[in-house]
Design a protein that fits this description.
457 residues, alpha/beta, Leucine Aminopeptidase, subunit E, domain 1, Aminopeptidase, 2 domains, nine-stranded mixed sheet, six-stranded mixed sheet, 14 helices, 20 strands, elongated
Length: 457
Amino acid sequence: MNRFDAMLLPDRGQAAHRIDVVTPDAYDAWLAARPAQTRALLAAQRFAGKAGTHAIVPGEGEDWHVVAVVADPESTWALAALPAVLPAGTYRADVGGPSALGWLLGQYRFDRYRRAENDEPRVLLTPDAAAIAETLRLAAATAQIRDLVNTPTNDMGPAELEAATEALAARHGATVTVRRGDELEQGYPMIHAVGRAAARDRAPRLIELNWGDPRHPRVAIVGKGVCFDTGGLDIKPSSGMRLMKKDMGGAAHALALAELVMAAKLPLRLHLLIPAVENAISGDAFRPGDVLRTRKGLTVENTNTDAEGRLILGDALTRAGEEHPELILDFATLTGAARVALGPDLPPLFTDDEALSAELLAAGTAVDDPLWRLPLWDGYDEMLKSDVADLVNAPDGGFAGSITAALFLRRFVPKDVAWAHLDVFAWRPSAKPGRPKGGDAFALRAAYQVLKRRYPA
């Protein structure tokens, strides 16, 4: 049940259960102002007003209402736990867009493969009517990422990413161009090399969507679409392969961000690029030690077939640069090293553009979608040296793995174009309020905030 439009409505005085949102340090004052019956009931429940707790209390002019104690009422996730524990019905809270978004995402379900819960929605009435449309779009975009990443590979291959892009284009009047299979060998040789071992119906492809007025500034969004990653001939152990359905999480983020841009009708010329492959194993698989040609003309010594995401992104970034955009954003579930450095919840940001870095970091803080900048340190660029080609795709030793991956990508971006690389995990290993275990969005709202500010509608 991910139709959010009926779950968030403007407050026009409809009948509803009130939610009093209070902080722990304000709880005693709130309690003192309640009737004796309410104080006695809460005391009997041993309700202490700790952050993250709630209670249902007798009504004051209605049958009952809710007290919710939250650490930060402005947090996206302040009310996110409530829809799962409150009875179905309509509620009223004096909160704005961020908390309303958490309320919606607390009702996200992925039930494609099991019987859907027959659960009535928890409806929130908000006084911030002007923010409803945008909040609904953000919830839908987040749910789209979750759905795409949660879908197993047997139902989410390159063809399904193409279909998702076609559906997106149809909703917004965009155009789509797709190059598939052996058609890629000449123009996009790294995408072809990585994906050629897959079955014919899962052939590699480069999916491009174009939208907007050609007179507007061009912005490219690139998403890594490895629909499953065996590791190739440098095969992953079974434990490392278990979650590789999520390796197209970058493509999911790119699709969701493109949806937000087009739905908001931002005045920009959008170029969405998704290199979509399955890194499979067969007699035709690319090999360790192969020297790959690239769209840019560089040669790459393939030192690790499990470092394939940066290869397909290299060709896609080259293609993006050919259209002379003023900004390129790429999303990719690129490195385990990023998780070792920053964990699953905090995506590293890589960029040489100081203004863009400041915008993204500030936006992440403002919309509760944090990022952390890691360096594109030139001193590690020498790790990419090859004895037989222009560069390697994965240096030996494993040091600074997230940084060297970003440095590899930088080789394929025009020097005069602002570019940011976001190494997202796209997966939540344990549940939090409003954020169930499974596929999830990271840095999506931060990136969208930057685009809204740069290109106001």
